[in-house]
Amino acid sequence: MSWSETAVLVVAVVLLVVWWSWVAASRIDRLHRKVAASRAVVDTQLLRRASAASTLAASGVLDPVSSVLVGEASWASITAGDAQTQGMARLPAELRGTARAGTGSPDVADRGLVESELSATLREALADPQEVAELREEPGAAELLAALADAWYRVQLARRFHNEAVAQAQRMRRGWAVRTLRLAGRAPMPQTLELDDAWPPALGRPGAPPAAP
User: Fold this and answer.
1) Using CA atoms, how far apart are residues 171 and 184, in angstroms rounded to an integer?
2) What is the pLDDT of residues 121-135, one digit of tens each?
C-alpha cells in the first residue's frame, strides 16, 4: 500500500471516528434532556399528589390524628419539591402552623425518603376498606379521594417513564468508547428515582369501582 493510500485510509478512519463521536455525543445530549424533562414531570406529579393529600387532610373528613400526620407528610413533600419557591402557598391555611412546627425543609437528596413517608402515611390513614367506604359517604370526600387517586396514579406512571429514560442514558454512557472519549463531558450520571409509591388498595384505581369493604 502506497503512502497516499495509507493517508487516505487514515483520514477516512479519523473522519469515521469523528462522525461517530458526534452522533454519540448528540444522542447522549438528547438522552440527558429526556431524563431532565421526565424528572420535571415526576416532580410536578409528586407535588400534585402532595397538594391533593394536604387538601384531604385539611378537609376535616379524616380523623384528627390522621389529618395531622397526612398534613405534615404532605407539607414535607411540598417543601422538598418546591424548595426554591414559596411552597407554603400551596398548603391549606389550616395546616400551615402544624407543618412549620412539625417539619423542616428536607434536603433535595432525601426526596425519595420524603415521598416514601407520605406514601406510608397515606396507606396507614386509608388502610381500612370499611373506613374508606364510610369516608366516601361524607360530603365532598369522594371527590377528594378521587383527586388523590388520580394524582398518585400519575406519579407511578411518571416515575416509571423517568426511570426507563435514566436506564437508557446509563446504558449509553457505560459503553467503553463513550467512557474513553469522554463524550458525556462533565455531566453527572443520571440516577433513577427510588421511592415507595405502593398503592393503598382501599383507595381504588382511577376509573375503577371502589374496593369492596
Assistant:
1) 12
2) 999 999 999 999 999
C-alpha cell belonging to residue 101: 412546627
Count CB-CB contacts under 10 A for residue 102: 15
Cα(74)–Cα(45) distance, integer angstroms: 13
Q: Structural domain boundaries of the chain? A: 3-203
Mean pLDDT of 168-178: 89
3-state SS assignment for residue 82: coil
Q: What is the DSSP string of 86-146?
A: TGGGGS-HHHHHHHHHH-----GGGHHHHHHHHHHHHHHHT--HHHHHHHHTSTTHHHHHH
Length in residues, the chain: 213
d(CA 26, CA 196): 34
Report d(CA 211, CA 25) in Å as an integer. 49
The pTM assigned to this predicted structure is 0.78
